[in-house]
Amino acid sequence: MSITLLNSLKAVQIGTGIKAGFCGKLLVDAGAEVIKLDLPDAAPADHFSPWLDRGKASVVLDWRISEGYELLRRLLDTVDLVISDLDNPQDAATVERLAAEQPRVVYTALSDLGRQGPFADRPSSDLIVSALSGMCYINGEAGRPPLREPGNQTAIVAALAGFMGALAALVDRSQSGLGQAVEVSALEAMVNVLSPSVLQCSYQNGAPFRRQTADGFLFDCADGKVSVIISSQSSWDTILEIWGIVPDPNEADRFTEKARRANMESIRRLFAPVLLSKTRREVFEELCLVRVPCGMLLNPGELPSDKHLIARGSFDAVPWSSTAAAAGPFPGPGFRIAGEIPTTERCLPRPGEDTARLLAPLLAGTGSPAQ
Length: 371
Description:
Helix content is 38%, strand content 12%. It is an alpha/beta fold. α5 (126-133) packs across α8 (186-193) and α7 packs across α8 (186-193).
């Protein structure tokens, strides 16, 4: 399904970071035209590019020289939205200044620590933001060192905040006719996500505890692991009944509803004879039939062949790039419109492949303001 929600919206993404890249991807997923603008000496594409840049146009322009500066000014006169996560303060100031000259443009600036405050000029990274936000502190097992969350979660959360802030500013523009500057700090976005932990500290006069075990209700089976939620008494009783398990009466105190979470090793030993004789799929199907919450532990490489995701059409087959030997599978955006998953027919662009097409009218001075 080729969606039209934001098909009248034109955006320029300036910066090669995940924050701007994912914010731009969200716009593409919703139907907007997004132009990824790179400097000639920008870092080469990495393994994130097929995920972040598919569906975008690619322009290479050196706005640090006078001719490029004027072209960027003209380009921004034709768009609705500018997204930037430039690390270089001088480059970021140039883009912000040019965006401010366009009264209808919404300018969204994303950074790790924000543009004001004592830490504003300090170097940062995903790990540093995770540490400063408290995410590292609450992630991990009790009594062991804190852990960084997998992936680049602070950048993703910042991009989501930027996407929402930009859309809110665009809605306001539809009433006022004027754009606004939207500033996003990944640190503040993460603190917002962790609001329950912050409030817990405020009301309970102490820092939140880490989990007793990081693996929770995970159990070994014949071909991997499954997650089985045994916290409720009804689930526990059902499992014992269908698997014919009779706990040792001398260990009954370990298996009460309140004690189970603290005695997972004893429960794993109790379940092992049954679980190690079954595959993940067999356990999953058997327990779901009796309404016991259960899930298979899948690795990312198994997801495209998962029958539930296949049935829902969660992956599309558009090639990653124009030179790709085969198409997809490529994960969809995670939402549906009128029951269908939005897709883009445009693959990952070659760096600068749209430069001539998009800048030629500007060179001739024929660029027109966005409506």
